[in-house]
Specification:
Layout: H1 2-7, H2 35-40
Length: 84
């Protein structure tokens, strides 16, 4: 959406939640992209025991999480060893 808004001449400010992350050293491959840290220990996800954001318009509403957010880029490719 930010792309379309800026192309329409509007100014956009994007805010991300959580600690500052950078491609290096946070995303350098293959040292930091390990299964235990990111899949099992959920390092990229917010700790919901510390802070859970919900949106309710009255006490009878069901809690809903906010939309949006970012995730570290993953290429989605599977390499098969021993194949050309």
């Amino acid at each position: 959406m930010a792309k379309e808004l800026t192309e329409a001449g509007l100014q956009v400010l994007a805010l991300e939640r959580g600690p500052a992350r950078d491609t290096y050293p946070d995303g350098v491959y293959p040292q930091t992209m390990d299964e235990l840290t990111y899949n099992s220990r959920k390092k990229l996800f917010m700790d919901i025991s510390r802070e859970t954001v919900t949106l309710r318009h009255s006490v009878n509403d069901v809690a809903r999480l906010p939309a949006g957010g970012a995730e570290e880029h993953r290429v989605g490719a599977t390499v098969r060893e021993g194949r050309p």
